Amino acid sequence: MEVFDHLATGFMAAGTLENLLFCLIGTILGTLIGVLPGIGPIPALAILLPITFGLDPLSSLIMLAGIYYGAQYGGSTTSILVNMPGEASSVVTCIEGHQMARRGRAGAALAIAALGSFFAGCVGTVFIAAFGPPLSAIAQQFNSPDYFALMLLGLVMAIVLAHGSVLKAVAMVLMGLLLGLVGTDINTGLTRYTFGLNGLWEGIDFLPLVLGLFGIVEIIRNLETPPPPRETISTRLRDLWPTRKEIREAYPAALRGTGLGSLLGILPGGGAVLASFASYTLEKKISKTPRKFGTGAVEGVAGPESANNAAAQTSFIPLLTLGIPSNPIMAIMMGAMIIQGIQPGAAVMTTRPDLFWGMVASMWIGNLMLVIINLPMIGIWVKLLSVPYRLLYPAILLFCAIGVYSTSTEPFMMVLMIVFTVFGYILYKLGCEPAPMVLGFILGPLMEENLRRSLVISRGDPMIFLDRPISATLLVATVLMIGLIVFPQFRKTREEAFQEE
Amino acid sequence: MVIKSPQDFGAGILFILFGAIGLYVGSDLNFGSARNMGPGYFPMIICSLIVLIGLIVTAKSLSLEGPPIERIQFRPILFILLAIAAFGLLIAEVGAVISSILLILFAAYARRNVNLIETVVFAVGTAAFVVIIFVYALGQPMPVWWGR
Fold first, then answer.
1. How far apart, in Å, are the Cα atoms of A98 and each of A33, A76, A291, A306?
2. Taking CB atoms and an 8 Å cutoff, what residues of chain A touch B25?
3. In the beta sheet, which residues pair with residue B37?
4. Least Cα separation, residue A122 to chain B (angstroms)
């Protein structure tokens, strides 16, 4: 089977001692940052991004993927033990997992989350290997109008899934698009929105933007309103194994979660958050004992945890085959790839098969490492929760500053970081969630270019978007999504879904 | 006129300002036509949309109740920004060790009740750690002390 040949290539590339080491370091660092309450994958990736820059492209991507899974995984640990979700996708784990922990089943909840995630990770890896090539063949048929329509759908989905007000999320995306356009216009060579600053000629640098908006604003937020004192539930290693009954309840849920997550991950706008909420809702719906939910239902841990991990993996598919990030986390991944000199897209698979398959293989390796470093070493991560914040935040801040300095010694970069910290702070005070902005920022230049090309082909006739079957389908989906936002019934469910946080 | 939702009102004004600045700064860019989009085409559309949404959000904030804007605390943000600025300005002059220590000292004062001795010890330790990791292990080009 071709799939296995590809995977073999990948394991050869990812299995070198050096890459295994970077994968391990990535998962450990990711867990380390992810365990800290309140820090989700986006700030974790932003903070750790700079340390991957010195590596060669494959190693750095392997490490970044490891950081991502590690951060997500660490978030689940914190949710279960401290009832503090580090990020949106472990919110539901918080609901059931922490209840299990209170009943003295913390170890079992952690083990189920770990094993469910690992299983989902295995399936996700095979999923990418099986569907990557056919999808990239489809991607070859994508033309400018189709790309434009796909990005539009992705942005609308990001708006649907953003926290809080829809209108504000739309504004965030639009502001992101505009920020993405700053710099030299590739078509005319004219500089736009540079305010006469040379430092902006090549556009706004990605790193100061994400570090300011996510990393540093997060610190200031925690300083302004310190998180409430938390009740940590201690866990002993010998309680780690789930009972037979728990396993019986967990595995069908894990299977369903994996399937659902794998599918939702591929969709534009999909990803870990959507998958875990969807899986939780599904489990609650089909359960014979829905009353158990909210009091520590095993299915409510197994399903969403598997789903978010499966989706975390398959959401790489649109990025790697179409070159389009489907959610803010993938936008950061894409930013990192571009910094490494790789333009994500269908071409990567043919020109750099080692890179593509190596990354896929490393996802599986990373998941295995996570189980190994998490289950036996859980005590260490829990200890980390007792490091006082007064020591933690200056160190994180120093990391951010050195990260920016190590990519560019221009003092201007620090100015940019300060500007985006202030901007992010204002957004936070005004109740605006900045995550959709990153997606807009990455997609801005791509959207403009594809819109321009489409309209050149059609000589200015917008009907071109409806004449092509792919773009027409995507646009219909976009309109349906917009309909969902406007339609009051769905709007209520969306608000309720976020209410649970 | 009564502002019922201060957060949304502020956000609306921010959007309007952002969009308006975009429109003003971009006004001298060639708009072109749909057939041949100029450099101003896409930005103008986006900025107009931002202004439009800003107007809607502002209008809604006058009629629908919403959360107030939390009080701004100046201490955290000022000291954090000061720490970054000091680091960025000084690293080229005095090197990574001293600028790292300064960053941590400034950052520590973003909180009240600072334990100076603990902070200094922590700052020196972290600076050493950072130099070992970034300069020696990862080989980042960075001056360690002044004048290289």
1. 20, 10, 17, 17
2. 193, 195
3. B32
4. 32
Question: Is B33 an interface residue toward A (CB < 8 Å)?
Answer: yes
Total domain count, chain A: 1
Q: What is the mean pLDDT of each run of 10 residues along chain B (148 residues)?
A: 87 96 90 87 94 95 88 92 93 88 92 89 91 78 73
Six-digit token string for A470: 């792919």
Which member of B14, B57, B100 has the closest CB to residue A426? B14
| Amino acid identity at A146 | D
pLDDT score for B45: 94
Q: Count Cβ–Cβ pairs < 8 Å, chain A vs chain B.
A: 186
Phi, psi for residue A73 in degrees, rounded to 5: -65, -45
Domain count, chain B: 2
Name the range with the highest mean pLDDT among A241-245, A351-355, B5-9: B5-9
Does residue B144 lie within any of the structural domains?
Answer: no
With a cut of 80, say whether residue A71 has pLDDT above it. yes
The Cα diameter of chain B in Å comes to 67
ipTM score here? 0.94
Residues of B in contact with A395 (CB under 8 A): 104, 126
* Same domain assignment for residues B44 and B78: no
- Averaged pLDDT, A230-246: 68
Q: Does B126 touch chain A (CB under 8 A)?
A: yes
Classify B111 as helix, strand or coil: coil
Domain range enclosing A273:
2-499
pLDDT confidence tier of residue A6, bands split at 50, 70 and 90: confident
Question: Inter-chain contact B46–A177, Cβ cutoff 8 Å?
Answer: yes
Which of A168, A181, A220 has the CB atom closest to B76's CB atom? A220
